[in-house]
Amino acid sequence: MDYQKILDEIYKEVKPYIGKGKVADYIPELAKVNPKQFGMSVVTLDGELFSVGDAQKRFSIQSISKVFTFTMALKMYSKELYKRVGVEPSGTPFNSLVQLEYEHGKPRNPFINAGAIVVTDSLISYYKDEFITLENILGFIREISKKGDININPQVAKSEMEHGYRNRALANLIKSFGNLDNDPITCVETYFKHCAVEMSCEELAHSMLFLANRGTDPLLKKEFCSPTQAKRINAVMLTCGHYDASGEFAFHVGLPGKSGVGGGIVAVVPGKMGICVWSPALNRYGNSYAGTIALELFTQKTGLSIF
Amino acid sequence: MDYQKILDEIYKEVKPYIGKGKVADYIPELAKVNPKQFGMSVVTLDGELFSVGDAQKRFSIQSISKVFTFTMALKMYSKELYKRVGVEPSGTPFNSLVQLEYEHGKPRNPFINAGAIVVTDSLISYYKDEFITLENILGFIREISKKGDININPQVAKSEMEHGYRNRALANLIKSFGNLDNDPITCVETYFKHCAVEMSCEELAHSMLFLANRGTDPLLKKEFCSPTQAKRINAVMLTCGHYDASGEFAFHVGLPGKSGVGGGIVAVVPGKMGICVWSPALNRYGNSYAGTIALELFTQKTGLSIF
Amino acid sequence: MDYQKILDEIYKEVKPYIGKGKVADYIPELAKVNPKQFGMSVVTLDGELFSVGDAQKRFSIQSISKVFTFTMALKMYSKELYKRVGVEPSGTPFNSLVQLEYEHGKPRNPFINAGAIVVTDSLISYYKDEFITLENILGFIREISKKGDININPQVAKSEMEHGYRNRALANLIKSFGNLDNDPITCVETYFKHCAVEMSCEELAHSMLFLANRGTDPLLKKEFCSPTQAKRINAVMLTCGHYDASGEFAFHVGLPGKSGVGGGIVAVVPGKMGICVWSPALNRYGNSYAGTIALELFTQKTGLSIF
Amino acid sequence: MDYQKILDEIYKEVKPYIGKGKVADYIPELAKVNPKQFGMSVVTLDGELFSVGDAQKRFSIQSISKVFTFTMALKMYSKELYKRVGVEPSGTPFNSLVQLEYEHGKPRNPFINAGAIVVTDSLISYYKDEFITLENILGFIREISKKGDININPQVAKSEMEHGYRNRALANLIKSFGNLDNDPITCVETYFKHCAVEMSCEELAHSMLFLANRGTDPLLKKEFCSPTQAKRINAVMLTCGHYDASGEFAFHVGLPGKSGVGGGIVAVVPGKMGICVWSPALNRYGNSYAGTIALELFTQKTGLSIF
């Protein structure tokens, strides 16, 4: 299939939607981003790369980082991790605190904030220090994306810390149930920092290759997780990857994926490719407006949906 | 692929698990079923049928009927239906009432009880009478399964009615928010009746063919819903089809599916086949114990998982 | 103290507020009432009666009837009753279903709807028939108010039944937890009927005398409950008698009391008198607008507040 | 009435219950207290003091301090305070987070932890510094109790800070709704510190005199709040003063009161006296086991209940 042609078509068709929606404005640093940007990249298992638009421009990956930390924790702890965090979809954001309370501090899945904070805590416990933890998260991301200069945007991290009271509430509640080993503020700060990593579409598409290839990056020939773990991560991305619009995404796009409020969405076509799309303005569910449409067009044009 | 050989292998490997778990006992009629039964059927798009065990024995389809009523309502009302029922996963059973309250009587998806009751209400409004509604549900089921003698077990329906206070509570709460057109008790009784339909694995596997073939039954050459609607139904089955174990099922089986407390599970391999497995004893999530294992073995042996 | 003079003053001062607020309109029968009415009565333990305004006009007592059914059940079951219904304040109406769920179908107190339905169920179990139950409730009310012609308004009862889906939801939920002996619809209908009793201010003030006199009506010389039970009923009226404004009422009025959406409020001055005020238009908490002000003026002018 | 004789009788009768129940053990410092202690004091409006047992021994006042901070904030902000904290009873502890979420960060009353944290925040905003705030809280307590050496136990405060994750979660959640002006951790620490004040029964009984005398301490001849504010504080103590047993306390004791997990309970007889009882072992609601019984005996023997 001529993926470059398909991406070019998508870029053309999606243009009227670029800038529609609303850039995340809960922290000043994210609110500054120009909404009229769009990039998309596809990397096949044999390393062919196709891109359009601002695919080389770095943006704040935000919740996409949860895929990376979940992968790292799953490799470290294997099934033991599921004692601390589940793999089932959660309901509305309203329920997050109710569910944590009712389920005694065990978050429903690693992609809601509560779950990602527990995952981050498990990494800090493993590395025994938050700085070393961040270094290793960065190291992992640099390796799977094949780019050594990926880094954290300190302004974004700082901005999150100044406004993240709800996440602090979650972390303290989890701690009160005994499901955090480390200090809740340390966990939240480390979490904010790995959310503030900046990457481009091309780098993120590359970083999905191991999930498209049963845990082993086909270019690096390195196993980052077992085939079963890769299947698990893909399944959790499909059922829980898009906040309160996971069902919509499963239908419209039909691929395992994960979105972030920075406007990025990664997706995986098992056995075939890694994908990333980015456009900063968000729809009412907090997922990239133009990005969601672009992915839907991609599965329509290629017939790659799983349904 | 030699599906008969694969089914024979599965039957052998799953034997130690048949009868493990617990038959649904919340109503006396279901509690009477012998747990030591197991059947499985696969039907390909060209009509080849493969079966093992008690695949011709009829059992109570229970929540699997929600797939049929959702299909009917989607065809009648198209996108209008989503104003009354969502397509997103819900959280714990505990949350069912909280969510209904918080979301003003709009159930999260058509496969939780609240959602299925709204779907049934929409059918009654369409047919203007509950008896005619049931006749049409039965007619639809008989057509897609190609068996004219499929029917409701009146003892099971009566037993449900005698114990279904929680479902009555849900229906009355939905009504209080104005999201039921008809009398809540009528809706619940009609719902209980279509749950009490009895079918065999072979019949249920056949009834999934239209979903495996973009809405059109390949043997009858008849469209039961549009390709987009079939995709939607499959997506909802994947994300919401197994109560509080939808995430687990997505991972272990990796196919759109729907389970019932009678011990049946249907699954769809898009573009390839319809599947049904049955074994009455349930795991702690209310899904067939041996049935879930059998489906997992099937996707392992055939490599048909979507991830 | 010259209570007649005080009532006359109150009547004059409260006039600008009569008709302010909103008549209960959730059922058509209650919505028809002329809001520009006001009556108030005080009866002392020695039987002196003081009245102003429409104190002899009968109105729908609604939730005030919960005081009578609670008294009857407490006499029948004594402390055993507390196994089925608590005596603690509840939170917001929103919480009613959440709390019932979390507390396994045991309502927080006998003055929220869920609790009153359980109390009504306990009366039906005692009398073994809902008709006999209603006859006995009416008999009790006629006796304590010394008026043989008090009766149920069948239009109001019917109107409630046609719109009371939320109460039906509560009753079915309680039943699903095993905390109703009788059919939930029977309980709700009986509950709606005793809420539809019509009485005047003079009759209701009289009916409070036994609670002002440690359980024994001073005029009839008859004990309707023990001194301890009377104290309990007064305490529950103070802490739970006014929906989500019980704290406000305790502060502003400072007397045990119970309001109904028909616009009536009864109050008790322990050791001294029974009081009833009525004006149909309600404030935003569902309590009589002018009535609440009149009671506040009464405690200010007489210094009878308990604080 | 011979109050000394009554206290002596109570001491004798309550002896079998002293030590029954369980000392608060959620922080190590409180768990160390010898449970076999009991003290009780009564001070009349003319300054007569009656005591029994360990009435001069200081203990951790814990939540009783909420009465003092609420009084101070009410005087500073008057009715404006009610925009930030309500005066209605709350439901179960489970509901605390649900209610805060549903009611957008406005706590139900100043005596649940969430409410007390908001009150503390309002004091810090007034004094513009947490150290000065604590100095003024201590100053207020020293003045109303007429004892200049009352102080904070730093070990208890430190112990709370090391274990108070749930309170930190509440504070951060309130902050996320914009209902805290200051840093949530500062608010929680200041709150923990004023809870760690140590006072004796005699001192606490004295400190209730202004509430028994319409806001003015009869011995100091000084108004600490207006008559209306005193009435409000008493009403809130009656309806919300004893966690999930406020209804039970209203019934059994029938006086405005406030308990703390240190085992102290203060109570007010409006127009007559201030009372304090202390015994460290708690009943299942977290209120002093022997203390509650002693207060019940006191109202029985004196007939001073408000019902």
Beta fraction of the residues of chain A?
5-15%
Quaternary structure: homotetramer
Biggest sheet: strand arrangement of chain A: 3-2-11-10-9
Query: What structural category characterises the helix and strand content of chain A?
Result: alpha+beta
Count of DSSP helices of chain A?
14
Number of domains in the coordinates of chain A?
A: 1
The SSE order of chain A reads HEHEEEHHHHEHHHEHHEEHHEEEEH
How much helical structure, as a percent, in the residues of chain A?
A: 40-55%
Most extensive interface: pair and counts? A-B, 37 and 37 residues
Globally, the shape of chain A reads globular
What number is the mean pLDDT of chain A?
Answer: 94
Q: CATH class of chain A, please?
A: Alpha Beta
CATH superfamily of chain A: DD-peptidase/beta-lactamase superfamily
What is the CATH architecture term of chain A? 3-Layer(aba) Sandwich
> Biggest sheet of chain A, in brief?
5 strands, antiparallel
What is the third-level CATH name, the topology of chain A?
Answer: Beta-lactamase
Distance between the termini of chain A: 20 Å
Low-confidence stretches of chain A: none
Whole-angstrom Rg of chain A: 18 Å
Number of distinct beta strands of chain A: 12
